[in-house]
Amino acid sequence: MTEPSTRVAIVTGAARGIGAAIATRQAADGRAVAVIDLDEQASAKTARAIEEAGGRAIAIGADVSDAAQVEAAVNRTAEELGAPTVLVNNAGVLRDNLLFKMSEDDWDTVLSVHLRGAFLMSRAAQKHMTEAKWGRIVNLSSTSALGNRGQVNYSAAKAGMQGFTKTLAIELGKFGVTANAIAPGFIVTDMTKATAERVGVSFEDFSKGAVAQIPVGRPGQPEDIASTASFLTSAESGFVSGQVIYVAGGPRD
Ligand code: NAP
Predict the structure, then answer these.
(1) Is residue 26, in this structure, part of any structural domain at all?
(2) Of all atoms in ligand 1, which is nearest to the CA of residue 15?
(3) Residue 127, pLDDT score
(4) In angstroms, rounded to a whole number, what is the distance separating the alpha carbons of residues 11 and 19?
(5) CATH classification of the domain holding 124
(6) Residue 19 CB: number of other CB atoms within 10 A?
(7) At residue 90, does pLDDT exceed 50?
(8) pLDDT by residue (tens digit) across 225-253?
(9) InterPro entries, alphabetically (predicted)?
(10) How many Å lie between the centroid of ligand 1 and the Cα of residue 11?
């Protein structure tokens, strides 16, 4: 099936980092973009940059783990831009700690933003996609899904994203909707900068250590993830569904 003329994408956690790069790339690909993040002012920065580059975007402040805010955000997108048929579940947080020191709050927050957030957003957006008989969902997993010291909550959430994605692919395929996951490796963003700070090393040293393990010999950039998302949300990717693409400068699974 060909892509419908109304092309509207929702990108969550798009105020900065990987989400901002994905939103910008979606706009460059010709989509009107709903930029969702916790703080509407922060979302507005990305939306403004898209408009200044000649694209179309709206900024929405919403917590993806809150069902009412998610419903309102998806409804506003449909009213102001048209039916969203592309969804990128990117919003994320870290609350790293070793298991014996991890609080229930830190467990719940991480599972809630990543997994409950992706569930609520996908449930709200799928009705527009199934009605249009076309849709693309991309979920952000991570190489941490394979296990990572100090991230029992995050790795569980990111492994969960993979099972969630495969089930979406099975349930929604007959409506022309695909679902895939991207599992980034080390990408230069505020999130990896915060990790360096937490473990008490300079970002330069932290980055050097990470790059030493990366076959292509460089750190990932948000644009590396945005270009992968661009393919997975394109019309040409319609026979690719339920996959996890490791974008890590080498094989990580
Ligand atoms: P980032 O720079 O920390 O950006 C994440 C964005 O998500 C922030 O703008 C944050 O808003 C927003 N957010 C957090 N909780 C939210 C909520 N409940 N509702 C809506 N928005 C929320 O992170 P990033 O590095 O770009 O990561 C993006 C995604 O890629 C995440 O899912 C992350 O787990 C994944 N990932 C990243 C890497 C990496 O190396 N960077 C590797 C693998 C996977 P606030 O600023 O207000 O908190």
Answers:
(1) yes
(2) 9
(3) 97
(4) 7
(5) 3.40.50.720
(6) 29
(7) yes
(8) 999 999 999 999 999 999 999 999 999 87
(9) KR_dom, NAD(P)-bd_dom_sf, Sc_DH/Rdtase_CS, SDR, SDR_fam
(10) 11
CA-based angle 221:146:126, to the nearest 5?
70
- Please check whether residues 23 and 100 belong to one and the same domain: yes
Ligand 1 centre distance from Cα of residue 14 (Å): 8
For residues 86 and 200, membership in a common domain is answered with no
Do 106 and 227 fall into the same domain? yes
Domain total of the chain: 2
Tell which residue, 135, 206, 197, has the closest CA to residue 171: 135
pLDDT tops 70 at residue 176: yes
Q: Which domain holds residue 195?
A: 189-219
Whether 1 is in a domain gets the answer no
According to the model, what pLDDT value does residue 3 have? 52
Q: pLDDT tens-digit profile of 122-161?
A: 999 999 999 999 999 999 999 999 999 999 999 999 999 9
Q: Is residue 184 within 6 Å of ligand 1 at its C-beta? A: yes
Shared-domain flag, residues 134 and 239: yes
Backbone angles phi, psi at 85, to 5 degrees: -120, 5
